[in-house]
Specification:
Number of domains: 1
Low-confidence stretches: 335-344
Order of helices and strands: HEEHHHEEHHHEHHHHHH
Oligomer: single chain
Length: about 350
Amino acid sequence: MSNIIHCILVFFTALAATFLMTPPVVRFALRHGIVDKPGERRVNVRIVARFGGPAMFFGFVAACFVAWPYVDGMLWILLGASIIVATGVIDDVRTLSAGVKLVGQVGAAVLMFATGSRLEFITNPLGGYFYFPLWLSFLFTVFWIVGVTNTLNLIDGLDGLAAGITCIASLTFLLVSVQKGQIESALLAALMAGVTAGFLRWNFYPAKTFMGDSGALFLGFMVSVIALKGAFKSTTVLSFLVPVLALGVPIFDTSFAIVRRVKARQPVMTAPDKGHLHHRLLAAGWRHRDAVLLMYIITLALSVAALLIIRAWWLALYLVAGIIVLTGLLIALGKIKPSKGKSHG
């Protein structure tokens, strides 16, 4: 019971801190011209602040101090997240090349591996475990962190899309971690669910601010670390499917984007296109808000499927109930109402 109380405390600390810090960060961004302007590849029709990353990071730091005594290596996680956010902030302000951003991501991933957050083994279906050689563990860990970090960045194309998907995935990780007694991943998942819930008040359609690369990269990095702390340390092979399915929308969307760009002989990381799922939905006539909600529903369905696969029947019900409660909370906080116009996340 005390672990659940700690998770609740961390969740609401992160939510409140992010909720309160976002408006002043938005004002700072508008004052200094850190904005997204309407353009050919943009779906927003007005100038919007693009600096949500620092706002979420402030909420993350505030909640870190609450979770600190219970999470081994929290200092290193905070440092890794700082590297990711700093890289993203510079990109949001001055624009960095894909290579430079990749160096920052790999640096943060190497730090996580060196300090113990790594993919070390898989369950042997015939019994026992198969432990990876150190070099293979290193490759898998860095590939996972960098890969997921970029999938969240690529899916960030509509208001509230990346934040909402991360929130649903984090709640899924939280339920599984609590059930398995993995307090570290449970607290980190509660933290990120709170951060994204607090930010959604300002990022959901029509957005008052976008998260920018600093925010999207931060979300991707953190959910990858949560999986390393939780699902990937499970003794059940099916548990590996939980993070893969919970993050199914951005993972599948990015996989198709890679295939599409390779087939067209375009640079994988830097070639802009409008072939992402959210772009296709808009092109098919879906309204902005409806397209986002559809992708939320798909993420929720995949998360529930993951819980059913590991036979966590009650957790699947808890997840659906939790999303309903959280939706009501966000409506109460933000008084979210249907509105007209286009924007971008």
